[in-house]
Specification:
globular; two-stranded antiparallel ribbon; five-stranded mixed β-sheet; about 210 residues; 7 strands; alpha/beta
């Protein structure tokens, strides 16, 4: 176990959607690894209000997922290439910003929170699932994938309070992020910075 004298009393994971049309989720777990809050948010104003006024935030270690940019593109080849095509700065044809893979939503707000003194980082959902042995064996975010992830979080990682009915994918990803922050305090795991995004470190389990 980590040092119980550390200042963090709560550990917050947030699965951020790329727009207000889709749900984002917040999970807060305490030092006993119990879920004390699991909620969905949609609008940027609601997300900002949570981080400004929720009493858990001040004494928490926080991580927020980086959503993928799913801007509608022209041409089937652009839609498929966006996920894996490596482009350099010499490539000038970038109509509709089709090489942009990550969504910048709320990035300015998270940077302000960091500058105000909060312990906040970012994470990549797919990479974190991989290092925890929770890879998507089914098409990601489908009902089968969510059922598999929820069962693994309950049985393998001890979240026995999870209900039998299926939680939204964003809620499960938020739990994953909160668990990661908990483990950085109490499981003596190594973390590594994989890159920096908009002023915040993107962390993964080492």
């Amino acid at each position: 176990m980590g040092e119980m004298s550390s200042k963090e009393f709560f550990f917050i994971g947030m699965s951020l959607s790329n727009s207000s049309n889709n749900d984002s989720s917040i999970c807060v777990i305490d030092r006993n690894k119990r879920i004390v809050l699991l909620d969905k948010l949609y609008f940027t104003n609601d997300i900002e209000l949570f981080f400004e006024q929720n009493p858990y935030v001040k004494n928490a270690k926080i991580t927020v997922s980086i959503p993928h940019d799913n801007t509608l593109l022209e041409g089937k080849w652009r839609i498929h290439c966006k996920n894996y095509k490596m482009m350099d700065n010499k490539f000038e044809i970038n109509r509709n910003d089709w090489t942009k893979r990550l969504c910048e939503r709320c990035s300015d707000m998270f940077l302000r929170l960091k500058e105000s003194g909060l312990n906040i980082s970012r994470f990549d959902v797919n990479l974190l699932r991989g290092v925890y042995g929770l890879e998507a064996n089914y098409l990601q975010r489908t009902s089968l994938d969510c059922k598999s992830l929820q069962s693994a979080l309950r049985i393998k990682y001890g979240f026995e309070e999870l209900p039998d009915n299926m939680l939204p994918a964003s809620s499960l990803e938020a739990i994953l992020g909160a668990m990661f922050m908990y483990d950085t305090n109490f499981s003596n795991i190594q973390t590594k910075k994989i890159f920096e995004y908009k002023g915040l470190d993107v962390l993964n389990k080492g």
